[in-house]
Amino acid sequence: MTAPPTAVRAPLAAADTLARCRELTRPALTDAVGRLHPWVAEMAAYSFGWCEVGGAPATAPGGKGVRQALAVLGAEAAGADPRAGIPAAVAVELVHAFSLLHDDIMDGDATRRRRPAVWKAYGTGPAVLAGDALFALAVDTLAAAPQGAGAVRLLSAALADLVRGQADDLLFAARPCTGSERVTPQEYRAMAEGKTGALLGCAAALGAALGGAPEATVTALDRAGRHLGVAFQLVDDVLGIWGDPAVTGKPVGGDLREGKKTFPVLVALGSPAARRLPALLGSPGRAAEAAVLIEEAGGRAATLAEARAHTAAARALLAGAALAAEAAEELHRLLDLLVHRVL
Fold this sequence. Notes:
2 strands, disordered N terminus
């Protein structure tokens, strides 16, 4: 059994924290998925890497479990037993899985974690159904928890922001690269906070709320998670252009070949030094040329500076909140793991 946060515990590396929180959450997450219709449960299990198509057991790579870790650490940061955060951890992991299932369909992404995405493995309609089921299960899980009504309200607010962020992200693709209708870096920040930051902030806030934290602490953790989400997205943007495919699992320059309006691209488009950039975006054979132009126009440096600023804001919020020391240290280590990949 995991020791409560009041027990003496050696400091953990971020990877150890993630593993500890996954191990703590997995039984409840498995039980929750098991309550679904058997076919839907199989698709959910496949999305988590627990089985192959048809239900045969598998040990495929799953996610890191960042959101469930934030929920458990949120409870510990409030001075509660980590088990108080398990309903929040299960709920946010289910919502994250739901969002990935639907994102892959909307984006046309055929693979997820080096396996066929659920919609490619089972069909588009079944994948939509599985995503809907995961969302409903998340709400049911929270509603059954102590202080469930307030927890569901927190999750609902985060989901509304997530949907707004996803809607903006989809609409950005149709907007021009230049002129008064172009996407601005400010709009991109708001999109990233909703699409990526809202659920990270909600995870930590939910864990804290279920752990009995005061409202000020819950709010601080939510805001810190939102800054973390923006920083994480910005780092992903840099890796999407200049990252090592052996590390990222994505082809170098993939975002440029797809013409994505990521933060480095938006910064560069605002510079006279990148007048040729609109003609290069979306051109399969010119991604390397576009990457050089974006870097020369300051897109890479500005994105890294922006990520550092959001990281610093998250750290300041954690430092200013009344958090249990060990959990606060693990939160800082987790932040390092997520955003210091290129910083």
